[in-house]
Write a structure and sequence with these properties.
The protein has 148 residues and is of the alpha/beta class. It is built from 1 helix and 7 strands.
């Protein structure tokens, strides 16, 4: 009986101590939080996600055909020179039913920031294609403007 009482008292002290410690820690961090409870600052970028139908590869870049609304498609061209560290584009290859898709980031003033292209790893998948011949000046772009 004495053993059970000692264990119960020890558990009571441990629980009380952890509650007091948690309250002291939370009270010290409230000053760094904004009103939403987030510790991050508000971003000046906003993402726009679109489903990609097909990605056509070329030595000059990628032609991306994406869904525009529910029944039509649009296309855009991303130069290969953007796919460098710190550049305007990044390609992330993966597997899963959500691939392929694309996220275009715009600044709060509406100007283009960068793009992330999520493609399937397997380039033999029907979502991949190639551009035959000369694409002309299609890859000479400075920004990406999505059509809705």
């Amino acid at each position: 009986m004495k053993r059970i009482m000692i264990v119960m008292i020890a558990l009571l002290f441990a629980a009380t101590g952890s509650i007091v410690f948690a309250q002291a820690t939370a009270a010290g961090q409230e000053s760094s939080l904004d009103k939403s409870g987030s510790i991050r600052e508000q971003s000046d970028l906003y993402p726009v996600r679109v489903d990609v139908v097909r990605v056509y590869a070329h030595s000059q870049g990628y032609r991306v055909v994406y869904r525009k609304g529910s029944a039509s498609v649009a296309e855009l061209y991303i130069p290969s020179s953007w796919f460098v560290p710190g550049g305007k584009a990044i390609m992330i290859r993966g597997r899963g039913p959500q691939y392929p898709y694309m996220v275009v980031y715009y600044k709060s003033d509406g100007s283009f920031s960068h793009v992330k292209l999520f493609t399937l790893q397997n380039m033999k998948d029907p979502s991949w294609g190639t551009i035959e011949g000369d694409p002309g000046d299609h890859f000479k772009v400075d920004s990406v403007k999505l059509e809705y």
